[in-house]
Sequence to fold (120 residues):
Amino acid sequence: MKVIISESKYEDGILNYLKANYRPEYAWGPEPHIHSFYKIDVKKYGGIDFYVNGQSGYGYQVNGRNRVLNIDSLVCDPLYNLFGYKWVPIFKEWFEENTGLEVNEIVLFPENEEIKSFKF
Fold:
């Protein structure tokens, strides 16, 4: 039996999966004070790391005009296995909404593959 899923339902599924599995270990959300916290850390240190299950899952860095989100194999490998690369732009939007940090490049660091970069 073939099941047809609309693109919006597929994207909603990815988004729900991200919310359930890849939120950092400390609370975050659209509250303005949380966004300010992230921006202050980025300004002070040039970036910020986000931990999932006690390990670095993804990190954000600013270098001049470049705003890069580096996603470690802990996060990118399972997402790729489930969704191919369709999750990448959804992760970008999800991350920006929840942190207030703008992303113009995502770099994936898969376990056994070549590093991949997506520019927006």
Summary: The chain is about 45% helix and 25% strand. Residues 7-21 form the longest helix (15 residues). The radius of gyration is 15 Å. Strands lie at 47-52, 55-63, 66-72, 105-109, 116-119.
